[in-house]
C-alpha cells in the first residue's frame, strides 16, 4: 500500500534490510528472492511518471463531453508521481450548467466508499457551490482540501494531458456504442425475418407467471 501511494523509499529500505539480515544469517535463497523483489520495486518506481518537483499529493480531473455523455478521467499523483488513473463515462440525464456538472462529478468521485481524498483536487473549471463542496471533502478527509483550477506550469500541462485522455476515451466509447448499435440493428432485422413481422420490433415485453398449485400468483415483466 505504501508503494502504490508513491512512498517507495521506506519499502526499499525495509527490503534491503531484510536482504542483509538474510545474507548474514546464511539464508542465501531468501536473500536472492529479496534481491529480485528489490529490482522489481525499483523498476516499477522508475516507471511512475514524475510530474511535480515537490513530494505532494493531489488528483487531477479531466472532462470531455458531447450533448449526451461525458468522459471523466482522474489521475492520482502521490509524492509527486503519477501512481494510477481511472475513468468512467457518465450519461447526461439532467440539464446542468458546466459548474453544476463539475460539482456532481467531484461528488460522485469522492462519495464512493473507500475513496481516498487527497490534499488538493485539480479541476478544469470551478465547480458550483465551491465552499460547500470543499467543506464536505474536508469532512471526508478529516483534513484540509482545496479544489482549484491550475493556471500555469506543470500542473496546467498535466491538466491538459488528463483532458486529452478523457477526449480519447470518449472517442473510443463512441466507437463501441456505434458497434453495439449496428449489432443490435442486425439482430432485430434477423428477428423480424424469423418471426415474419412487417417491421423490426422496437420493444419486446416478456411476461412470466408463477403460482403455488393455483394460489399465490406472482407476475413479472421484462422489457427489452
What is the topological layout?
Blueprint: H1 8-24, H2 28-47, E1 58-65, E2 69-78, E3 81-91, H3 98-111, E4 120-122, H4 130-141, E5 146-148, H5 153-195, E6 205-212, E7 215-223
Mind explaining what this structure looks like?
The chain has five helices and seven strands, in the order ααβββαβαβαββ. α1 (8-24) packs antiparallel against α2 (28-47) and α3 packs parallel to α4 (130-141). The strands form two sheets. A five-stranded mixed beta sheet has the order 3-2-1-4-5. Strands 6-7 form a two-stranded antiparallel ribbon. The chain is extended, with a radius of gyration of 26 Å. It has helices spanning 8-24, 28-47, 98-111, 130-141, 153-195; strands at residues 58-65, 69-78, 81-91, 120-122, 146-148, 205-212, 215-223. With 224 residues, the chain is of the alpha/beta class.
Highlighted features:
two-stranded antiparallel ribbon, 23% strand, five-stranded mixed β-sheet, 5 helices, 224 residues, alpha/beta
Question: Outline of this structure?
Answer:
The chain has 224 residues and is of the alpha/beta class.
Number of DSSP-assigned strands: 7
Measured by DSSP, the beta-strand proportion falls in 15-25%
Rg, please?
Answer: 26 Å
Number of helices: 5
Distance between the termini: 44 Å
Amino acid at each position: 500500500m505504501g508503494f502504490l501511494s508513491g512512498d517507495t523509499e521506506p519499502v526499499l529500505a525495509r527490503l534491503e534490510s531484510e536482504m542483509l539480515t538474510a545474507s548474514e544469517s546464511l539464508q542465501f535463497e531468501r536473500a536472492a528472492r529479496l534481491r529480485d523483489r528489490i529490482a522489481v520495486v525499483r523498476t516499477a518506481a522508475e516507471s511512475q511518471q514524475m510530474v511535480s518537483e515537490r513530494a505532494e499529493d493531489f488528483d487531477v480531473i479531466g472532462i470531455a463531453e458531447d450533448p449526451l455523455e461525458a468522459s471523466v478521467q482522474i489521475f492520482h499523483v502521490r509524492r509527486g508521481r503519477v501512481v494510477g488513473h481511472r475513468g468512467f463515462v457518465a450519461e447526461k440525464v439532467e440539464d446542468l450548467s458546466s459548474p453544476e456538472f463539475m460539482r456532481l462529478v467531484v461528488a460522485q468521485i469522492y462519495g464512493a466508499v473507500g475513496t481516498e481524498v487527497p490534499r488538493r483536487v485539480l479541476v478544469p473549471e470551478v465547480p458550483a457551490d465551491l465552499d460547500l463542496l470543499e467543506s464536505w471533502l474536508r469532512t471526508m478527509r478529516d483534513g484540509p482540501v482545496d479544489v482549484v483550477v491550475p493556471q500555469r506550469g506543470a500542473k496546467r500541462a498535466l491538466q491538459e494531458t488528463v483532458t486529452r485522455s478523457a477526449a480519447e476515451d470518449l472517442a473510443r466509447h463512441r466507437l463501441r456504442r456505434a458497434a453495439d448499435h449496428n449489432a443490435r440493428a442486425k439482430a432485430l432485422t434477423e428477428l423480424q425475418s424469423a418471426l415474419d413481422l412487417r417491421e423490426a420490433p422496437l420493444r419486446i415485453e416478456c411476461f412470466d407467471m408463477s403460482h403455488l398449485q393455483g394460489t399465490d400468483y406472482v407476475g413479472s415483466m421484462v422489457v427489452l
